[in-house]
Design goal:
75 residues
């Protein structure tokens, strides 16, 4: 039986790199993103960021194409 583990460091920014992620809402945003990842069968190691971008370290199941995963994450 084979074992596959895909760990990715994902970084994406806000539109025009504007500082739109306020400290007041960042934890709510990170929890929401974590919920999407878990709903797709992934595992979140860490989510953090700055007012203009987000860093995510997560496992993505090998049955999901990265492009499809990112599409659902960024919707």
């Amino acid at each position: 039986m084979s074992y596959t583990r895909n760990i990715y460091h994902i970084i994406f920014g806000t539109k025009n790199r504007e500082c739109t992620i306020s400290a007041e809402y960042e934890q709510e945003l990170y929890s929401y993103i974590a919920g999407i990842i878990k709903g797709k069968g992934g595992f979140v190691h860490s989510i953090n960021g700055m007012p203009n971008h987000v860093h995510i370290v997560c496992d993505i199941p090998p049955v999901i194409a990265i492009s499809d995963f990112m599409k659902s994450l960024k919707q």
